[in-house]
Amino acid sequence: MYTKVRTFIEENQMIQPGDRVIAGVSGGGDSMAMLSMLLRYAAEKDFSLEVVHVHHGIRGQEADRDQALVEKFCSRYGTACSVYRYNVPKLARESGMGHEEMGRIVRQRAFRDAAGKSEENGKRVCISLAHNQNDLAETMLHNIARGSGLRGLGGIRPVNSGTIRPVLCLKREEIDHYLEENRIPYVTDTSNLEDSYTRNRIRHHILPLMEKEINRETVSHMAEMSRTLCQAEDYLAKQGAELLSRFKVEDESYLLTEEFFREEPILQSYAVLEALGHLCQSRKDISVIHVRHILEMNEKHTGKRISLPRGVCVRKEYAGVHIMAEEIFAGDLLEEEWKLPVPGTLHCQLGDFYVKLFSYFGEEISEKKYTKWLDYDKIKKNLSVRTRRSGDCLIISRDGRRKKITRCMIDDKIPVQEREKVPLLVCESDVLWMVGGRISEKYKITPETERVLEVRYQGGYQDE
Q: How confident is residue 329, by pLDDT bands cut at 50, 70 and 90?
């Protein structure tokens, strides 16, 4: 098993001489097996290894047990171990997001902090995570169900932006065999045994059923399929970038002429994705609908204009479709306000808002950062979207205590230069939701709620 992982590391050029590898180790079987193999590989190759363990403050004594096991194992092998402790329930409550999403954010913070310390010493840093082939298959199925292009169908990559996954070549049963054969201690996170999360339901029911009823090598075949899809994605992205380069006007501008629209449709889509990725400096908030809007602009009348997330403007001109960066000035946005259709979709300078209305029968409340549920029965007037104004406050407690929006932004560590761009969902002067943050206590779902307003936002102003 170790030989297989060592070959996988070298084939994917994960670790170079002199690197500093930071292994994320939870204490579970996957991460403990990965750590064991990295220790063996470090004895053969010239790189340094350290461990980061994140204590989420969720599972009480079980979490303390996990930390103790990781620290003891690292001490036995003389490996540096940094423990980062966070009160995830408190942070999630204050930010208005779910535990799972906040857990992901604090882990990223821990890795960034550890990597920053290493980079100060001039070392190239790799973050090593313990995803395996089963994780890859689960991710692919999840993305298929939610809707995805080639990028999502490719699932988890072995190497991606400074992150390596050395045991992605192993199935979970192979890892279990390695743990038993080498008598490596590990712990079981009991929350992984529950079916409350979609990924756990895929893990416990759907994937095992596919292996039993369709093909016992489902996981291996999906891993091979992932490799092929990633290659196809990389090739099309490269071709799209080459196509786009022919229509670059200046650093922050692209003019797509009729010649562009005679190319293969899939290359047009990848070229537009490349343009948006460059102008937005991230593909995180870009969806297929944004690409479709831009491609459809070629059929619009001259002068037609749309605004996309992160200050991107698209305008139909006589010569073609012009995509450019559009600076969002706070002074302009202070007076702007967009009415929110209920139900419906709003595309505006601040992003995209997708609104649903449905009856409430006690369902579990959505806790996602950019999707919120509000008690529609308490909303008496038309809703709209705008940025902050003087005097804006958010009700933060059941007794009606208020906090200024500016203070909320400071508490959420939103940079000063970004605060004028944060969308607010409002009902006249009443702030219902600071997008990306918490919602007003006044409009939260209660057992008496009859109708739920669901608002989903795309076009985030934050990187996390």
A: very low
* Alpha-carbon torsion (284, 109, 28, 90), positive or negative: negative
Are 279 and 325 in contact by the 8 Å Cβ rule? The answer is: yes
The residue among 13, 81, 4 whose CA lies nearest residue 40 is: 4
Q: Are 272 and 239 in contact (CB under 8 A)?
A: no
End-to-end CA distance of the chain: 36
Whether the predicted model's global pTM rises above the 0.85 cut = no
- Please say whether the beta carbons of 38 and 12 come within 8 A: no
The SS3 call for residue 240 is: helix
pLDDT higher for 197 or 127?
Answer: 127
User: 294, 314 in Cβ contact below 8 A?
Assistant: yes
Residue type, 372: K
Question: In angstroms, how far is CA 37 from the centroid of its own chain?
Answer: 28
Count the alpha carbons within 13 Å of 234 in the hemisphere toward its beta carbon: 9
DSSP symbols for 165-215: -TTTTS-HHHHHHHHHHHT---B--GGGGSSSSHHHHIIIIIHHHHHHHT-
Mean pLDDT of the chain: 88
Tens-digit pLDDT profile for residues 167-216: 999 999 999 999 999 999 999 877 776 766 788 899 989 999 999 999 99
Give CA–CA dist 16/37, Å, rounded. Answer: 16
CA dist 242 to 279, 282, 313, 404, Å?
16, 19, 22, 48
- Is the model more confident about 380 or about 309? 380
Give every CB contact of residue 251 below 8 A, 6+ residues apart in sequence: none
Q: 347 forms bridges with which residues in the sheet?
A: 352
CB of 22 closer than 8 Å to CB of 114: yes
What CA–CA distance (Å, rounded) separates 46 from 18? Answer: 6
